[in-house]
Amino acid sequence: MALSRQTLERLRIDHKESRGFRLSDHDTKWLPDQLEAMPKDERRASGEQMLAASKAELEAAQDILYADDRFALLLVFQAMDAAGKDGTIKHVMSGVNPQGCSVTSFKQPSAEELDHDYLWRAAKALPERGRIGIFNRSHYEEVLITRVHPEILQSQKLPDGPRDQGFWRARCEDINAFERHLDRNGTVVLKFFLHLSKEEQRKRFLERLDHADKNWKFSSADVKERGFWDAYQVAFEEMIQETSTDWAPWWVIPADRKWAMRALVADIISTTIAGMDLRYPEVSADERTALKAARTALEAE
Contact 121/106 with Cβ under 8 angstroms? Predict the structure, then answer.
């Protein structure tokens, strides 16, 4: 049961309307109408069927993406802690060939990375043509955590200048230009913001504390960062306002229901690949002659 394009577009932040974007207008528990209309005990099973179908489509499409060798697909995931980035990547991409897929997690920059501009490490991790690249966090950390904690900028060896609203707007302009360059050269960029409520984050943190096998996922820094919730909401909101473009729009995915979040992300990815005009390379007349000769030789053995 694939979702209609019209349904999926409700999650896409249109560039023309992005200036008026507000996180508060987007329900973290939202479900597509066809799932909302079902009895509650049937919704999850239906969502998991959608996920399975999209994964099968993605597995088949990956083969054509590689053979076509004109395009690459870059998936960007941003969210608050405990929103489910890791789990979504794991469940949605579990059927793809790992040889054609790479995952990059962007953590604290290394000394080498700090000696380059902030987009350098993102550019270095981009997928090749025919492949899928996944950014678990991304270059957008440079308008998120660095904005909430501006003291981080002190380690970036930047030229002197004000760190005001114009500074952050300029960074967004640079990111837009970077992604425009990628789009023009065949890298399709899909950006997902996993929209989690503060209450659901609290529940998930407590779950990590309550279960010994999940303790490793929890850090005292998580609670400290939770104290900056409002500042992060402003940063995410303005990030989406400034960088949801025609060539690389943001998709705001309700994240309070993990099963629904994964189904939505998978459907968007499979639908996007289906619209990329991918095709297997055509075999020339000379190559067909060579293939026929190869068949004759093999059959004669």
Answer: yes
Distances from the Cα of 116 to the Cα of 145, 157, 273, angstroms? 18, 9, 33
- For the chain, the residue count is 301
Q: pLDDT digit string (tens) for 5-21?
A: 778 889 999 998 888 99
Residue-wise pLDDT for 158-215, tens only, equals 999 999 999 999 999 999 999 999 999 999 999 999 999 999 999 999 999 998 888 8
- SS3 of the chain: the string is CCCCHHHHHCCECCHHHHHHCCHHHCCCCCCCHHHHCCCHHHHHHHHHHHHHHHHHHHHHHHHHHHHHCCCEEEEEEEECCCCCHHHHHHHHCCCCCHHHEEEEECCCCCHHHHCCCCCHHHHHCCCCCCCEEEEECCHHHHHCHHHHCHHHHHHHCCCCCCCCHHHHHHHHHHHHHHHHHHHHCCEEEEEEEEECCHHHHHHHHHHHHHCHHHHHHCCHHHHHHHCCHHHHHHHHHHHHHHHCCCCCCEEEEECCCHHHHHHHHHHHHHHHHHCCCCCCCCCCHHHHHHHHHHHHHHHHC
Average pLDDT score over residue span 211-229: 88
- Please state, in angstroms and rounded to a whole number, the distance separating the CA atoms of residues 149 and 175: 19
- Which pLDDT belongs to residue 249? 96
End-to-end CA distance of the chain: 48
Radius of gyration in angstroms for the set of CA atoms belonging to the chain, rounded to a whole number: 22
Tell the residue number behind the tokens 């004759």, with chain if given.
296
Two structure tokens written together for 134: 């996944």
Residues 211-237 have a mean pLDDT of: 91
Q: How many CB atoms lie within 10 A of CB 24?
A: 7
Q: What is the pTM of this model?
A: 0.93
Per-residue pLDDT for 1 more than 80?
A: no
